[in-house]
Amino acid sequence: MIRNHLHTAVATALLASVALVGCKKKEEPVVTSTPPATTEPAAPAPAPTPAPVATVTVTTVDLGPTVGADKKVASPTATFKPSDTINASVGTTTSDPAAAVPAKLGAKWTFQDGQTVKEDTADVNFAGPGQTVFTISKPGGFPTGKYKLEVLLDGAVVQTRDFEVK
Length: 166
Known about the structure:
- This is PKD domain-containing protein.
- Residues 29-51 are annotated as: Disordered.
- By secondary structure, this protein is mainly beta.
- Helices cover 13% and strands 41% of the residues.
- It has a domain at 56-165: Distorted Sandwich (Coagulation Factor XIII, Chain A, domain 1), CATH 2.70.50.60.
- Strands 2-8-7-4-5 form a five-stranded mixed sheet, with no helix packed on it. The protein has a three-stranded antiparallel sheet with strand order 1-3-6, with no helix packed on it.
- The protein is rod-shaped and about 145 Å long.
């Protein structure tokens, strides 16, 4: 009987220890630092829109024997006498009147056979509307015939005018 009690006591102790081990709560590891925040890289700021570049435009080309104080041809014509001084008044404007726009304005005068009579260029800082005058004259007089004026802006022909000396 003692033996039975001993077996019962051992069996009870064994069951109690198994019960304690089985019911023991598993310990969670302690986190001491927070994980790094996951942030997406910031999108680059949009590039600023560049300011429009101011441009020069040739608006008018008038030919005549005289030019007024305003640098405009007083009486535009396409026919001249051999002894006339021939003036070309070139009207220009800029897309932004407040901005100075440096450019090269030119005039190429040619005779009917393609021979260059005269070439002029002027470096101009354009600002808003303006007039530039180009002039040709010949002390002995121009030969009669047909002529052409080419107006150039930065080396490119932008306007032409045909005229005649009679």
